[in-house]
Amino acid sequence: MEVEVKFRVNLGEIQPRIEAIADFDHEEVQEDLYFSVPLPALLRIRRIVNRDESILGYKLIKDSRNEEFEEIEVAVEDFEKTKEILKRLGFKEDVWVKKHRYVYKLGNVTFELNRVEGLGDFLDIEVISDDPEKAKEEIWKIAEMLGLGEEDVEPRLYQELIQERSKEKGK
Amino acid sequence: MEVEVKFRVNLGEIQPRIEAIADFDHEEVQEDLYFSVPLPALLRIRRIVNRDESILGYKLIKDSRNEEFEEIEVAVEDFEKTKEILKRLGFKEDVWVKKHRYVYKLGNVTFELNRVEGLGDFLDIEVISDDPEKAKEEIWKIAEMLGLGEEDVEPRLYQELIQERSKEKGK
Fold it and tell me: In this complex, is the C-beta atom of A85 within 8 Å of any C-beta atom belonging to chain B?
């Protein structure tokens, strides 16, 4: 299971602190198209622009704070054709989430530092584990090292934040 | 659009006749898993066993004789993960169609000579064209060269033939 906690951050402030404790792994320019499926399921196609790759992804949220996910991902040859198949199967396009992601690693902990278009900067601290409680302890130990606290947590999904933003704009 | 006519054949008899007029292109061992979607749509994942490739495919039947298809196919990295995503999205496994396919080409005409597990031998003569009538004329001209007539046509889908066979067996 994927266990992660998302924090609102300031990229310029947090990046040097992450670089002091973790190793830079890679960066990605991601464009995620989410489809309308009922929560707790998520369905998206991710285009990794800087690698010209596409990934079909299904996620199932396992907890009320959006911190525990079961995830199935499969690389697909073509974004547009995959989108067309999903649309033909009746899934409707919901929102796009576009971000620049810097990925760092420290042991089994992954840091995903995201600058999200229209939303701001976020840090996802992630551990793959079958023991969510232990994983969260680990995540929080590191969050504290970075000076992040409970008040910095953003429990909403990117998809939800974009939806809320669209509604605000629509007013 | 994909225009094709399917004939019941005897592989040993028809293969030399095809080889006399067309060029061998390649062969494939295909295992197709069809999912339950309402006709005229078809949804399948094809595993090309001899090339270790998988393809997600959506087809829409455009006519009453199952000869005209709109087709969207996308290569996927992993058969099992793709299957799992479709199942999570609510699609149920329907039937498996397994075949050994010999592919020949003559200009824009493709010959798919199939030995289908449990069903026998079939020849699909196929043309990609936006003019189904013209494509069918072309297909029939070649069918006659091979000694095939209207009485050899099998209008049912492989998926349907397998379904009927399962019902027969169940009696």
Answer: yes
Query: Are the C-beta atoms of B83 and B33 separated by less than 8 Å?
Result: yes
Best residue in B71, B74, B76, B83 to probe A by mutation, most A CBs within 10 Å? B74
**Bridge-partner residues for A5, per DSSP?**
A125
B129 backbone dihedrals φ, ψ, rounded to 5°: -160, 150
Query: What value of ipTM does the predicted structure carry?
Result: 0.95
Query: How many CB pairs below 8 A link A and B?
Result: 58
Q: Measured between CB atoms, which of A37, A43, A75 is closest to B77?
A: A75
Model pTM above 0.90? yes
Q: Chain B contact for A168, CB < 8 A? A: no
Residue type (1 letter), A117: E
Q: What are the pLDDT digits (tens) for A68-89? A: 999 999 999 999 999 999 999 9
